[in-house]
Amino acid sequence: MDKKLMVRAAAAQIAPDLTSREATMARVLETIREAAGKGADLIVFPETFVPWYPYFSFVLPPVLSGSEHLRLYEEAVTVPSPATEAVAAAARENGIVVALGINERDRGSLYNAQLVFDADGTLLLKRRKITPTFHERMIWGQGDGAGLTVVDSRVGRIGALACWEHYNPLARYALMVRHEEIHVAQFPGSMVGPIFADQMEVTIRHHALESGCFVVNATGWLTDEQIASITPDEKLQRALRGGCMTAIISPEGKHLAPPITEGEGILIADLDMSLIVKRKRMMDSVGHYARPELLSLLHDDRPARPMVTAHPAFETDPARNSTDGHDDASSDRETDQRIAVLRGQTG
C-alpha cells in the first residue's frame, strides 16, 4: 500500500461519559469528525475510553466495587458490535486511521483492548493488555502474545501498548523488531497526580528514541463533577486528578507540539516520516545496533485458548484474537518447532 511521507496525527484528551457507552461513543464519533476536519490522518483515543476507564477500582475497596464492576460489564464493548461498526464507518467516511481503547467483553470476562481501524474502516488490530496493573487485576483478564504485533495501515506500520506495558522492555522490543513506524500509547489520565504525567513523558520519549519511531500518546480527562461522582471522599478525589500527558513525540525524542496536561483538547502535529531513517541511520536497535547472537527475544505469539483439540474444524472464537492469522493448529505446531530450535532442543 502507498504510504504517506507526511502524516498529520491527532491525540484526543477528552472526558468519557461515566453513565453510558452510547454517550461516550457519541463523543468518539464527534471527535473523529473534528480531527478529520483539521486534516488529521490518524487519531488516538485514551486507554479503555469506551465506555470509560474503571477509575472506581483505584479508589474503592473490592468489597464495595461490585455494582460498578457489573455496570462496566453491561456497558462494555463486544467485538464486533454496533459500536465497532460505528467507529469503522466513521474511519471510512472521514478517511482517517483510528486507534481506540475499549473495555472489551468476551462473555464472562472483561479485557483492556486496543483497536486500530484503517482509513477504509478495516479492523487491523485487536489486542489485549498482557498484564493489568495493580487495581486493574480485579477488573480485567490477561492478554496474550498474539497481540504483540505491528500492522500496516494507510499511515504506516502501527504498534500499540497500553499504560504500564511500556515498562515491559521485552513487550516494547516485540514491536520494535517488527519495525513499527508509529507507536500508539494509551494511558487513563486523571490519576495519581503530576508524578504520573512526568513518568509517562519519560517512558514515551524513551520509546521513541529507542525504537526510532513516532509516539502518539492520549490520556483521558475527568471533570470535577465526574470525580465527585466516583467518590465523595475529598482525600481520595486527589488521587483522581493530574496524570495527563497527551503528547506526540518524534523519533528524536522531541515533542512535536506542546503537550496537553489539563482540560480537554485535540493535539495535532505533522509527522515527517523521513525522520525515522534519520534516527535509525545512527542507532537501529533491531538492525545494525543489535547483537542477536548475544541477545534475542523468545516470543510465543500464539493466541491463548482455554482448550485445544486435535480436530482441525475446532475454533474457539476468532473474533477474540488479534487479526494476524495465527489461529490454527498448524500455526501452533510451527511455533512449537521455532521455540524448540531457539531453546536448542532437538526433539
From TrEMBL:
Protein's name according to its UniProt entry: Nit6803 family nitriliase
Pfam family, one: CN_hydrolase
CDD domains in UniProt: nitrilases_CHs (cd07564)
Biased composition (Basic and acidic residues): 323-337
The family this protein is said to belong to: Belongs to the carbon-nitrogen hydrolase superfamily. Nitrilase family.
Segments forming domain CN hydrolase: 7-273
Signal sequence coordinates: none
Coiled-coil region(s): none
Disordered, as annotated region: 310-347
InterPro entries per the UniProt record, alphabetical: C-N_Hydrolase (IPR003010), C-N_Hydrolase_sf (IPR036526), Nitrilase (IPR023919), Nitrilase/CN_hydratase_CS (IPR000132), Nitrilases_CHs (IPR044149)
